[in-house]
Amino acid sequence: MSKGVVLLSAGGTGGHLFPAEALAHELAARGWEVHLATDARANRFAGHFPAKAVHPIASATFGSKNPIALMRSFWTIWKGVRQATALLARIKPVVVVGFGGYPTLPPLYAATRRGVPAMVHEQNAVMGRANKALAARVSAIAGGFLRPSGTYADKIVQVGNPVRPAVLALQGAAFEAPKEHDAIKLLVFGGSQGARFFSEMVPEAIAKLPDAVKKRLRVTQQARAEDETRVNARYTELGVSAEVAPFFSNLPNKMADAHLVLSRAGASTVLELSVIGRPSILVPLPHALDDDQGHNAQLLVDAGAALLRRQPTIDADSLAGDIMSLIGEPNGLARMAASARGVAQTNATQLLADLTEAIASGKTITEFKEGMRP
């Protein structure tokens, strides 16, 4: 018999769905009936989500300065609140957990209006706009890379970011620094918002490396479908061995196989670099309002595991210099790989499930934190 219903709310991107999926598996294993509320975009990819049912809920962003667009957004969000209210009345969850992003606004707002215990999980080192909007209303804020500070410090419980099983299976995978004349494996990926920059910049940076280094390089690079042929052709022209594709289903394995990773600095990426333990050059997504990726990247930089480079300052010469400085010091790469490990909490899924159950049972944050102490 089920312990009760837990409603998770996530959507927009895989970065929000991954931790929700990990929590869903853990809660289901503990005997809870899990439901997912998501937006129409994420609903297309939610078929594999381990939930009894997936419920599309209307939502919209509220970042536009256009008054008409703002009115439409608020109307859509209010429509979502009404849908979520009806859903809550039907499935009667004992707790609602949101994972950031605009799709979480209607379900979490509806839950707090009805007196249903609610909490949010913030993956990043700084709180996103949706979670900020909900922070005053929810009972708890589970921090991934977020540290207890600021106005809502008393509500923040640092549990870490849930790790996907495919990544956890590679935890601490042995790093073998390339010896002289060995192949040097470079992994490059940027997600849907970052692949274009890397497709344009990385081949030109590699073009500036010494010929002896180019012959040793084995590049695995994510590129948009419309860029794939051009990027492949450029590597062929340079005589560089490369595997270029729009998507890699086995990205964690590619990361474990790499000597150096060049990527954005989303919370999931920083988490996986830490769990697997790989050196990296991180280029945060520019123009983000809260610079969440910059703050995430700084965690690995402070650990001695990464270089942080801002996109506007990068050109082919500077990127070639960074790549060369790292791969030219194999022992340094090994030290960075070792330093990456330990930034992430690998028991985050269990801690997040514990916190979810505590909020559902009516425990206070103080009581839960007391129970966490060794």
From TrEMBL:
Record's bilayer topology term: Peripheral membrane protein
Protein localization: Cell membrane
Residues in Glycosyl transferase family 28 C-terminal domain copies: 186-342
One term of GO molecular function: undecaprenyldiphospho-muramoylpentapeptide beta-N-acetylglucosaminyltransferase activity
Key words of the record: Cell cycle, Cell division, Cell membrane, Cell shape, Cell wall biogenesis/degradation, Glycosyltransferase, Membrane, Peptidoglycan synthesis, Transferase
Catalytic activity line of the entry: di-trans,octa-cis-undecaprenyl diphospho-N-acetyl-alpha-D-muramoyl-L-alanyl-D-glutamyl-meso-2,6-diaminopimeloyl-D-alanyl-D-alanine + UDP-N-acetyl-alpha-D-glucosamine = di-trans,octa-cis-undecaprenyl diphospho-[N-acetyl-alpha-D-glucosaminyl-(1->4)]-N-acetyl-alpha-D-muramoyl-L-alanyl-D-glutamyl-meso-2,6-diaminopimeloyl-D-alanyl-D-alanine + UDP + H(+)
Gene Ontology biological process terms, A to Z: carbohydrate metabolic process; cell division; cell wall organization; peptidoglycan biosynthetic process; regulation of cell shape
Organism domain of life: Bacteria
Domain Glycosyltransferase family 28 N-terminal residue range list: 6-141
SUPFAM superfamilies for the chain: UDP-Glycosyltransferase/glycogen phosphorylase (SSF53756)
EC number: 2.4.1.227
Enzyme class: transferase
Pfam families in alphabetical order: Glyco_tran_28_C, Glyco_transf_28
Binding site for UDP-N-acetyl-alpha-D-glucosamine: 13-15, 124, 164, 192, 293
GO terms under cellular component: plasma membrane
HAMAP family membership: MurG
Recorded family membership: Belongs to the glycosyltransferase 28 family. MurG subfamily.
Protein name per its UniProtKB record: UDP-N-acetylglucosamine--N-acetylmuramyl-(pentapeptide) pyrophosphoryl-undecaprenol N-acetylglucosamine transferase
